[in-house]
Design goal:
- There is one protein chain.
- This protein has 721 residues and is α+β, with helices and mostly antiparallel strands.
- The chain is 48% helix and 22% strand.
- Strand 3 and strand 4 form a beta hairpin.
- Helix 5 packs antiparallel against helix 8.
- 30% of the residues are buried.
Length: 721
C-alpha cells in the first residue's frame, strides 16, 4: 500500500522486479501453505502476488488480481484512512501492526480484516515491495456484537431474572436449541440443579440431576467441555443432541459454583471468541449466584438481628440524642467557619475601611445573636474614641451620655486587654436603643501585638448589645475575640496602606525635586547666567556674537521646556488601563515629544489583546527609552515599533540621536537602563541595546506573549539614566 510519490524515489525498480521473479517459486510454495491471507504489493502499489487463502476468502481468481492496483480491493473509507494514516507510517517505519480495514470481495460484499505489513527496502533505502498479512476478523466482530447484545440485555437485571434472560440470549446468539445454567447441589460436586433452562425458546421447570455419564461432569470438575459433533455417540444420555459447549464458573474464592452450557441437534462450530464470550457470562453468573448465596445468608441472620435490634433501641435513642447535640454543635461550627470565611473575603477585597468594619460587625452581631453592635475606633493623635460602624440600632443618633458610657467601656476593655461583660440593666440602658435593649453588653477590645516592644496597642473596641441578661460561654468569647482580631487586622492594613501611600508621595516629590534640580533648574540657572553675561556685554557696547548668544539662549530655553513638559506628563495619571498600550503611547507622544518638536512614529501589526502585565512593562520601557532620547540623545526623530511573531512580542524604540558606546554603558549602567533590563526579565524576555557614537540608538525588548509577570508596577517610578 504505497503512495504514488514513492515511484520517483526508487532507482532500482527493474532489479527488484527481477529478484522478485527469481524468488517467486520458493515464496509461492511457502505462502500458499500458510493458513492466513498473504498479499504482495510492489513499489507502484500493484498487486504482485497473493496466496490461495487470499483468493479463497475474497472469491477472486489469480488472473483477476495480479497486476491490479491495491486500491481496487479496499473500500473507499479504508482507502482514505490508509492513505492518510497507515501508508505514511509504513513509509516512515517500514511496518504497521494490526490495523482494521475492509476488503471488497469478488461478489461486491465487504469483509473486515486485520492487516499487518512489512516493507522491504533496497540498497538506497527506498521501498521495493510490501508483504501484507490479512486475518479475517468477521468472527471477532460477530462475537463482539453478540457480547454487546447479551451485555445490554442482561445489564439491568439480577437474580433469577438474570439467569432466565442470559440463557434466552445464548439460545439466540449461538443459534442453538438448548441453553441452561446450573448450581452445584451438593458439596461432593456430583449433582447440579438448574437455575434457568431454555429449550426451543421455552423455559422448563427446575430440575436436579446426577453428573455421572453426562458431559457436564468434567465441566463441574473445572474443565471446559466442547463437543462440536457426535455428542450422542459419546454420551448416550444426551439422545437427540449432536453438540455441546460447557463452561464452569466460580465464586470469589475460586470454588466451582456451577456451569453454563449450550446444546444443539446439529454440529456446533465455536471459535475461541465464542468461548471467550461464554467465559465472560459464566463469570457474571458466578458473581450473581454468589450474591444470591450471600443474600440468603443475610436473610438467615435477620431474626438474630431483629433480636439484637430490640436490645439496641434504648442505646439508639441515647445515641440519637448525642448525635442531635453533636449535629447542632457541628452546624454552629459550620456557621462560624462560613461567617469567618465571608469576613476574610471582605477583608481581602480592598474595600474601604468603613465598609469592611460594617460587614464584619454585621456578621459578628448575627453569629453571636446580639441585638445590636457598634465599632469604636481610637483616633491615633487625639486619643479619642469615635463610632466607626453600627448595626441593629433603632436610631442613628447617639446621645452624649450613651457615647460617653460606651467609650468608657471600650477603654476598660483596652486597659484590661480582654473582653468585658457588663450586665446592669440601669447602667446599660441607652436612649439610642429600642425598648428593652441594652441589658447586657459584650465589649471586645481591638488590639495589635507590637512584636518589638511586646506592648498591646489598642485600636478601639466592638460592643455587642443584648436585650436580656445572659452568660457567655468560653467558645462565644473566643469567637468574639476572633472577630476582633480580624477587625484589628483590617485597621492595621488600612493604616499601613496609608503610610505606604504617604511614603510613596514623599518619595515621588523627592524624585521630582531632584529632576527639577538636575534638569530644569540647572537649565534655567545656565539661562540666567548666560542672559546676564550678554546683557553686560550689550551695555558695554560689545555686539559681536550676539546672534550666537541668542541662539544659545533659545536652545537652553527649549531644553528647559522639554524637560518641564516631560515632568508635567509624568505627573498626569496614565491612561494605560483605559486606553491600552497603543493609546497610552499615542497620548505620551502628543503630550511630550510632539510639543517639543520631535517626530515620533508608531508602527504596529495586528496585535491581539496583550496581558495587562505585558502592556504595563512595555509601556514603562518605552517611556524610559523616550525619556533618554529626549534628555540625552538630542534626537529629532523616534520610531516605536510593536509586532508579534511565533508567540513573541517585540518592542523597538529607535532614535537618530548622538548614540553611545554600549560597552561603556553595560559596564556601568544607570538606573534607567537597569530598570528597563529588570522589567524585561520579569516579563520572561530580554533587553537588547544597539548603538554607536553618531549613529542613533535602538532599544529592543522581546518577551513571550503568554508568560507576563503578574504585576510590574512599582510604587515609585525610577528616574531616567
Amino acid at each position: 500500500m504505497l503512495p504514488d510519490a514513492v515511484h520517483s524515489t526508487h532507482a532500482s525498480g527493474a532489479a527488484a522486479t527481477d529478484r522478485l521473479v527469481q524468488d517467486h517459486a520458493a515464496f509461492n510454495h511457502l505462502h500458499t501453505s500458510l493458513p492466513v491471507m498473504l498479499q504482495v504489493v510492489d513499489r507502484h502499489g500493484v498487486v504482485a502476488d497473493v496466496n490461495e487463502r487470499w483468493l479463497h476468502v475474497l472469491g477472486y481468481t489469480r488472473t483477476a488480481v495480479l497486476g491490479r492496483h491495491y486500491r481496487e480491493f479496499i473500500t473507499p473509507a479504508t482507502r482514505q484512512v490508509a492513505e492518510a494514516l497507515y501508508i505514511p507510517t509504513l513509509v516512515a517505519e517500514g511496518q504497521i501492526q494490526e490495523i482494521e480495514c475492509e476488503f471488497v470481495k469478488a461478489d461486491g460484499t465487504t469483509v473486515p480484516v486485520t492487516i499487518s505489513a512489512t516493507a522491504t527496502r533496497g540498497a538506497d533505502g527506498a521501498i521495493e515491495q510490501v508483504l501484507l498479512t490479512l486475518v479475517d476478523s468477521s468472527e471477532r466482530r460477530r462475537t463482539e456484537r453478540m457480547l454487546q447484545q447479551i451485555a445490554r440485555n442482561t445489564a439491568t437485571v439480577t437474580g433469577d431474572r438474570f439467569f432466565q434472560t442470559l440463557v434466552s440470549e445464548l439460545v439466540a446468539a449461538f443459534s442453538v436449541r438448548v441453553a441452561f445454567v446450573t448450581e452445584c447441589a451438593n458439596q461432593a460436586l456430583t449433582r447440579v440443579r438448574t437455575l434457568a433452562y431454555c429449550k426451543d425458546n421455552d423455559f422448563l421447570e427446575t430440575i436436579e440431576y446426577d453428573l455421572a455419564g453426562t458431559p457436564c461432569q468434567g465441566v463441574i470438575n473445572g474443565a471446559i467441555g466442547y463437543y462440536p459433533q457426535q455428542l450422542e455417540t459419546l454420551y448416550p444420555s444426551e439422545a437427540g443432541m449432536e453438540s455441546y459447549l460447557g463452561i464452569p464458573f466460580y465464586d470469589s474464592r475460586g470454588r466451582v459454583l456451577g456451569h453454563l452450557a449450550v446444546l444443539d441437534d446439529k454440529p456446533l462450530h465455536c471459535t475461541i471468541h465464542d468461548m471467550a464470550l461464554l467465559e465472560i457470562f459464566a463469570a457474571r453468573s458466578g458473581a450473581e449466584l454468589e450474591c444470591q448465596y450471600k443474600a440468603r445468608a443475610l436473610e438467615q441472620r435477620t431474626e438474630e438481628i431483629d433480636t439484637l435490634y430490640a436490645q439496641l433501641q434504648d442505646d439508639n435513642r441515647r445515641l440519637e440524642q448525642l448525635v442531635t447535640e453533636r449535629t447542632r454543635e457541628i452546624e454552629q461550627r459550620q456557621r462560624v467557619a462560613e461567617t469567618l470565611r465571608d469576613v476574610m473575603t471582605v477583608v481581602n477585597s480592598n474595600q474601604a475601611l468603613a465598609e469592611v468594619l460594617r460587614v464584619s460587625l454585621e456578621k459578628a452581631t448575627e453569629l453571636l445573636s446580639a441585638a445590636w453592635g457598634a465599632v469604636y475606633l481610637l483616633h491615633p493623635t487625639q486619643q479619642t474614641l469615635t463610632v466607626e460602624a453600627t448595626y441593629g440600632l433603632a436610631t442613628p443618633a447617639r446621645t452624649p451620655a450613651a457615647l460617653l458610657r460606651e467609650q468608657n467601656l471600650v477603654q476598660q476593655a483596652i486597659a484590661r486587654r480582654q473582653p468585658v461583660v457588663v450586665t446592669d440593666g440601669a447602667a446599660a440602658t441607652s436612649a439610642t436603643l429600642s425598648a428593652g435593649e441594652g441589658q447586657t453588653q459584650l465589649v471586645i477590645p481591638l488590639l495589635r501585638q507590637n512584636s518589638t516592644s511586646q506592648v498591646m496597642e489598642g485600636y478601639g473596641g466592638i460592643i455587642l448589645g443584648y436585650p436580656m441578661p445572659r452568660d457567655f460561654s468560653d467558645e462565644e468569647i473566643q469567637l468574639a475575640v476572633a472577630f476582633s482580631v480580624q477587625a484589628a487586622l483590617v485597621i492595621e492594613n488600612a493604616r499601613l496602606r496609608q503610610q505606604v501611600e504617604e511614603v510613596a508621595v514623599q518619595e515621588e516629590r523627592g524624585r521630582l525635586a531632584r529632576e527639577l534640580h538636575d534638569s530644569v533648574t540647572q537649565s534655567l540657572y545656565s539661562l540666567t547666567l548666560l542672559a546676564e553675561g550678554r546683557r553686560r556685554l550689550l551695555n558695554a557696547g560689545q555686539l559681536d556674537g550676539i546672534d550666537e548668544a541668542l541662539t544659545e539662549l533659545s536652545q537652553l530655553g527649549q531644553q528647559a521646556l522639554k524637560e518641564m513638559r516631560l515632568l508635567v506628563h509624568e505627573l498626569r495619571p496614565p491612561l494605560l488601563e483605559q486606553e491600552g498600550l497603543l493609546g497610552a503611547l499615542h497620548q505620551r507622544r502628543n503630550a511630550v515629544e510632539r510639543r517639543t518638536g520631535i517626530d515620533v512614529r508608531l508602527t504596529t501589526d495586528d496585535l491581539a489583546d496583550l496581558p495587562a502585565a505585558l502592556e504595563e512593562g512595555f509601556y514603562r520601557i518605552a517611556q524610559e527609552a523616550l525619556n533618554n532620547s529626549l534628555k540625552h540623545a538630542a534626537a529629532t526623530a523616534v520610531t516605536i515599533a510593536l509586532h508579534t511573531a511565533g508567540g513573541q512580542v517585540t518592542l523597538e524604540v529607535t532614535d537618530n540621536g548622538v548614540g553611545f558606546e554600549p560597552a561603556a554603558v553595560t559596564a556601568n549602567p544607570g538606573i534607567g537602563l537597569h530598570s528597563m533590563r529588570e522589567r524585561a526579565e520579569k516579563l520572561g524576555g530580554r533587553l537588547t541595546l544597539v548603538s554607536a557614537p553618531g549613529q542613533g540608538t535602538v532599544v529592543r525588548v522581546e518577551a513571550p506573549l503568554r508568560q507576563a509577570a503578574p504585576d510590574l508596577k512599582p510604587a515609585v517610578q525610577p528616574p531616567s539614566r
